[in-house]
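Appendix B.2, paired examples.
Example (i):
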Amino acid sequence: MNLHKLLLARASAGKPLRVGLIGAGKFGSMFLAQARRTPGLHLLGVADLDPARGRAALMQVGWPAEQIAARSPGDAAQHGDTWVGDDAATLIAHPALDVVVDATGHPAAGIRHALAAFANGKHIVMVNVEADALAGPLLAEKARAAGVVYSLAYGDQPALIAEQVDWARACGFDVVAAGKGTKYLPAYHASTPETVWQHYGLTAEQAKQGGMNPQMFNSFLDGTKSAIEMAAVANATGLTPAADGLHFPPCGVDDLPRVLRPREEGGQLDHKGQVEVISSLERDGRPVFRDLRWGVYVVFEAPSDYVQRCFAEYGLVTDPSGRYSALYKPYHLIGLELGISVASAGLRREATGAPTGFRGDVVATAKRDLKNGEMLDGEGGFTVWGRLLPATESLRIGGLPIGLAHRVKLRRPVPAGQCLTWNDVAVDEADPAFQFRREMERRFGGARAAAQ
C-alpha cells in the first residue's frame, strides 16, 4: 500500500529512485516495459554481457533510441537518461544508484553482484533465485550488516508466496502449507534438453524460432526450478520441506485445503508448515480441474471454533472438517510486477521476502547412471536435476548444490536417482562461489558442516 504515493512524491521532488538492471533477458525486459511508465523511477543503466542485447531489449519494449544514448552512468545521472554497457561493476559502484536488480540467472554472478552492492551501500533485488538458493541466507546476513536491503523479486513466485504467508500470519492464522503450481509428472525428472519440447507440445524447430532456450525450459520441467523456488520460500518464511523433498500432488484450487493438510487428517502433507508444489496434471496425464499451474497459494487453519464458523458464514472453501482453507493467486506477472520490490527496497527499506535462515537446499541428483570422469552440465541439463531437501539433511550427506553442479567432473560413478555429494566431484576450491557457499554452510550448519 502507498508505494505509488511515495513514488509520486519522489517524482514531484525531482529525486527519482535510481535503478540499475543487470541482465536483459525475458524477466529484465518485462521490467523495462513497465519501468518507463513508473513515476519516480529512473533507470540509470542496464548492464549485460552483450550490450547490443540490452539496447535491443529496451527498444523492443518501447524506449526511444535517444533515451538510451548515455555514454556512462554518470552521464545518465546528469541528463536523466539511461546507460547501456557490459560493465556491471561500474554501474553498481556509481554513487547516484540506489537499487541494483540482478536478473542474470547465474548463481556465481548473483553472489558477485550482491557483494559489490553491499560494499557500495546499494540495495539489491535478487531476481536470480538460483543465487538465493545457493547462498541466500548468508547474502541476507551480509546485507543486514551493511545496512542495506536484500530482497526476493516480486512477480517471481517465491516473493508472492512469502507475501501470502505474511498475510496469513499477520491475520493470526497458522500457515499449514504454501507453494505454487507447475506442470509435473514423475517421468519429467529424467527430461533433457533433447526431450523437453515434446512435453511442451512443441517441435525443436518451433522452439528455436521462438528463441526458447531448451536447457532453461527443461529446468522448469524436470523439477529443478520448483526445488530452487521452494528452497527460497522455506528460507524466507520458516516453512520447511518434507523429509524427502517435493511430492507434487495433483491438485486444483478448490481442493487445496483438502489435499494440503496433514496425512493423518486425510491430506498429503508430511507436517504442518510445509512448502509444496502442486501439479496441474493427474499422474495419468489428464489435466487437473481448475489447476494452479501459473499461480501460488497458502493454506491456513482456523484457530478456534468461532473462526471455523466464520469460514462457513463467509463462503470460504474448506476441507471436510471446515478447519482448513486457502488463498490463491492464479497468475504471476514476472518482471511486470518487479517494480514493487524496487520501490519497497528503495523507498521503505523493506524486502519483499528475504532469507531468515537455512532450511531448504537443492541438491544435484543423477538423471541417469553417471560414469566416472563425466562432466556435469548443471540446471536443466543432461546429467542432473535439483532435489529439494531439508538443509539439515543436505548438510548431513554433504550434498552438492545444484548451483555448483556445472562444469565439474565426476570422480566416481553415481547411480540414477542418487544425490551427489562434494566427494563425488572435483571442485575448484579457489572458485569464489564455492568458497562463499562453504562459508554459508559453516555459518548456518555448525559443527556438522565444518567437519565436511
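Example (ii):
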Amino acid sequence: MATTRPNAPLIGIVPRVEERKNGHGNAVYAQQELVDGLHAAGGAAIVLTRTADEACLRRYVQMCDGFLFPGGYDVDPARYGEEPIGGEVLTEPAADGFDFALLPLVIASGKPVLTICRGTQVLNVALGGTLWQDVPSQVQAALPEGARVRHMDPQPIGVASHEVSIVAGSLLDRTMAAEGRRAWVSSTHHQAIRDVAPGFTVTARADDGIVEAIEPAADGPYAGRFVLSVQWHPEVTWCSHPEHLRLFEGLVAAARG
C-alpha cells in the first residue's frame, strides 16, 4: 500500500453538502473513505468548495493534479431533455450547478479524473449522454425475477453486493487487474447510463446488462486520457478488495504523470 509523500499529486474531491442538524447552516464534506483511499494510493486529497465563479473553477483546475467526482443525489433529468418520472428522482440543483460547471473544464484540461456513481452519471450527461431515471421500473420490470441485479443495495463498509464483467484490454481492465475480469462491487444506485456519451465506450456491465463503467473510446476525441467512470462505490470496498484500491492508485499515478 502506498504512503502519501510531501510531493504527492493533489487530488481535488468534488464536495457534497449536508444541512447541519442544529440549524446552523450547511456542512461541506467528502466521505472519509474516499480521502483514505486516495491517501492509501499515495495521493494528497483536498475537498473543493462550491462556487459559481468561473475564475475560481479555473483555479481549481490549475491547482489540482487530478479530480474525483463522487456519489450523491440524482442528476436533474432536464439536463438530458426529460421530465422526472414519478417520485423516484431526488435532485439537488446546487450540486448539479457546480458539478456541471466544473467537469467540462476538467475534461478540457486533460487532467486525470475518476468518477463514482452520481459522478459517472454527471460525466455521461455533461458530455452528451442520457440516463435511465429509475432502473427498477424502466429496465428491471421487464426482466425475470432471477435476472434482476440488486443495484440499490447498500452494504456495510467492505461488503460487495453484485458482480460486474469487465471488457478485456480496457483501461479499467488494466487498472483493476480483476481476476477473470469479474469484480464484486458495492452498489447503491437506482439510475444508470442509458445512451453513452459520444467519445466514450462501455467497459463493464452488471449481469442484467446495466452499464457499470465507461471510459474514452480508443478512436474518440478523449482517447489516451485517464478518465475512469464507475457506477459502483470503490471507496467502501478498497480495504477488503485490492482491485478497488487500484482505481485510486491508477488516478494518483496518472496525476503524478
